[in-house]
Amino acid sequence: MKLLGITAAVLAVVAPAFAYSKTYFLTYDSFYDDGHTSLADVTCSHGEHGLLTHGYTTFDSLPSYPYIGAAPQISGTDSKYCGSCWEITHTDSYGASTSVNFTAVDAGEDGSDDFSISLEGMDYLTHGLAREIGLVSIIVTRKSPKACHLD
């Protein structure tokens, strides 16, 4: 019985860290589509939280590629959000929802509160309509790194 109480207490503290959900907007940036792009070219390259530091070298070396891009939580180099995993869910005008697990590798544009993903990633979420739509509303939920297959 004590073990059950301890487990519940631990989950009460740990679960909220990854259960955070919020509505944002999502755009695409074809910069994230070239898998051979070096991670040295993004904000999250070096430092304790840097992706190069953790052994990843190019976009396509990340297990969640092409579902990578910029997150507004990343304010600069070595942000604690570098390499963070997010479930991005888009619900279309017919009520159908599509989700992907996304790895944050870059800072968003200054002052932007939007996420940005590869064109391929946004096409998946919008059923091939990324260029036509351009900007969509999304629900974002923070996930554990394992959800994006990161060590």
UniProtKB/TrEMBL annotation:
The lineage of its organism: Eukaryota, Fungi, Dikarya, Basidiomycota, Agaricomycotina. It is found in: Secreted. Its main location: secreted. InterPro entries: Cerato-platanin, RlpA-like_sf. Coiled coil: none annotated. The keyword ATP-binding does not apply. Pfam families: Cerato-platanin. GO terms for cellular component: extracellular region. This is Cerato-platanin. Residues 1-19 form the signal peptide. The keyword Cytoplasm does not apply. Keywords: Secreted, Signal. Belongs to the cerato-platanin family.
